[in-house]
Amino acid sequence: MTADQRPPVVFLMGPTASGKTALAVELVQRGAPDGRGFEIISVDSAMVYRGLDIGTAKPDAATLAIAPHRLIDIRDPADPYSAADFRRDALEAIAEIHAAGRIPLLVGGTMLYFKALKDGLSALPATDPAIRSRLQQEFQAEGRAAMAARLAAVDPEAAAKHGENPQRLLRALEVWEITGIPLTRLQAEQPPAADPFPYHLLQLAISPADRAVLSARIEVRFRQMLAAGLVAEVEHLRATGAALHADLPALRAVGYRQVWQYLDGQASCQQMEERGIIATRQLAKRQLTWLRGWDGLQWLDADADDLVGQALKRLVEAGISAP
Is there a single domain that holds both residue 167 and residue 312? Predict the structure, then answer.
């Protein structure tokens, strides 16, 4: 069989608190068996935002000095970042890393971003600023439930899928108003791109084999975030960002949403902590559900001996790197 001559790309996916960043940094330090280096592209819908550091477990300055990450700290929290934005930026970063003779290593837990990058996006109408502004005003006046009911009347499948997410809810309503066609129908009728991701792809996923281990890690890490100053971080965001509100995608991120509610007086400190841990576990469960249905995925046990060596072995077996 002819070897795949396309430029290589490696995905490193996994649930939150599974050890993705630690493994990625070690791979950068070790390099591929054929001598090429890795360069990390973050695939995290919260790390893109400036000022969201503790609650996203964003790599610190010392880690970034060893293993720079692209696509972190590129947006203000008041400026939503979409899957389409990510796909554009990631493809540009991949091309630059290949031009430098390195292997792009895409690391994160935002599965929607991985899917958008690999499979492409439906061709939907561009945002209409006037319609979007009006819908946002109506959302503020009427509330999420009323807007979700409005969407359910014209696109019940989209309402069931996106009704809890203000950004996607408003986008589905906007598409309906622009085209008169439900978002679900437009997406179903869109033919797949001929070659949305023209690279030799190795898809790795990392997680502890024992779900109880992951659950315990999540609890420990969330408590560590609180001890490191997560509440103060959110207080700073509230004080410096006049345009920030709880329904922005940045502040709906796990941890930030619970702390914001606590600062609004909607929960006690203990309730905030408990809810943050529960929400993080639910996020990990959703991430694992995505991954269980992911084609071509190769799993790594986060607690296995010689984890880095196993990952590098997969590169050799995939024909991406010579031993």
Answer: no
Measured CA distances, 86 to 44, 72, 201, 235, 282 (Å): 9, 11, 18, 28, 24
Q: Which residues contact 67 (CB under 8 A, 6 or more apart)?
A: 24, 25, 28, 29, 40, 59
Q: How confident is the model at residue 127 (pLDDT cuts 50, 70, 90)?
A: confident
User: Do 105 and 240 have their domain in common?
Assistant: yes
Identify the domain containing residue 168 by its residue range.
129-189
Q: Provide the pLDDT for residue 185.
A: 86
CB 13 within 8 A of CB 205: yes
Residue 216 near residue 284, CB atoms below 8 Å: no
Residue 276 lies in a domain: yes
Strand pairing class (38-43; 69-70): parallel
Model confidence at 2: pLDDT above 60? no
**Residue 90 lies inside a defined structural domain of this protein:** yes
Residues 82 and 165 in one domain: no
The answer on 26 and 143 residing in a single domain is no
CB count in 10 Å sphere of residue 168 = 18
Measured between alpha carbons, how far is residue 77 from residues 80, 94, 156, 238 in Å? 7, 25, 30, 11
* Number of domains forming the structure of the chain: 2
What's the distance, Cα to Cα, between the start and end of the chain in Å? 19
pLDDT exceeds cutoff 90 at 122 = no
Distances (CA, A) of 37 to 31, 72, 104, 280: 5, 20, 9, 33
pLDDT score of 206 more than 60: yes
One domain for residues 219 and 113:
yes
